[in-house]
C-alpha cells in the first residue's frame, strides 16, 4: 500500500499563498527579489498549467537571482518522512523561441524539489530537445547551509536527449533519508542515482520554473536576448512508502 496525494489546483494560481505562490528570495537590504516575468501569459486548462514568458528579468550581481525568470513555489513545503521514501512525479512539456541552437541552458522549463533548511536541490530541466537532471547544494539567500570539511556548495548537471522531444514527458524524483539516496526517473526509466548525499533533507518546497543558466559576466547578466519559453506542467503526484513498499502513516 501507498500513501498518495496530488498537488495541483492550478485554478487557484492567481490566489497567491493558497496552494502556489510566486517564488523569490528576501534580500539582505530588506527587499524581495521576485521570480515573475511581467509579460508572462498564464493559462489553466484541463488541469494543466501553461505559462508563456518572453524573458526579460535579469540580476547583475547574484547568479541564483539571475537564473530563474518566472517561478511558482508550493505555498507549503512537503515534510520528508524519517524512514521509507517519498517520490514526486510530474509531466512537463517545453517549447522555446529564439533560444540558441543545441543550448539547453539558454532557456528551459524546470521542476525542483528545494530544501530551504539545508540548501539542497533535486531538479529536472527540459528544453524542446534536451533535458538535464540536477543534484545540488546551493547558497540560497537567507539559507544556512551546514558547514563541512568537504565541498560545501555544488551543482552537478547530467544532460541527455533520449526523450520525446517537444512533447510531454514524465519526470519522477525519489528521495530517502533512510538510505541517503535520490533517484531520478524519466518516462519510467532510471536515469540517475545519487548516494551518500552530504545533508539529510527535511522538507521540499516544490517549484515550477522558467529559467536560464548563464554565468554572470564582468558587465553583469548576459542571460536575456529575446528568448521566449513556453512551459506546461501537470499536477504533481506525491507518494510516500516504506522501503518494503507498505504505507507510511
Question: What does this 3D model show about the protein?
Answer:
The protein is mostly beta strands and 249 residues long. It has 1 helix and 19 strands. The protein has one domain: Jelly Rolls (Sandwich). Strands 1, 5, 6, 9, 14, 15, 16, 18 and 19 form a 9-stranded antiparallel sheet that branches. The radius of gyration is 17 Å and the shape is globular. The protein is 2% helix and 48% strand. The chain starts with a strand and ends in an 8-residue tail after the last strand.
SSE blueprint:
Layout: E1 3-7, E2 20-22, E3 24-26, E4 32-34, E5 41-45, E6 48-54, H1 63-67, E7 68-74, E8 78-79, E9 85-97, E10 108-115, E11 120-126, E12 131-137, E13 154-160, E14 169-176, E15 181-186, E16 189-195, E17 203-211, E18 228-233, E19 236-241
Antiparallel strand pairs: 1-19, 2-7, 3-4, 5-6, 6-18, 7-17, 8-17, 9-14, 9-18, 9-19, 10-11, 10-17, 11-12, 12-13, 14-15, 15-16
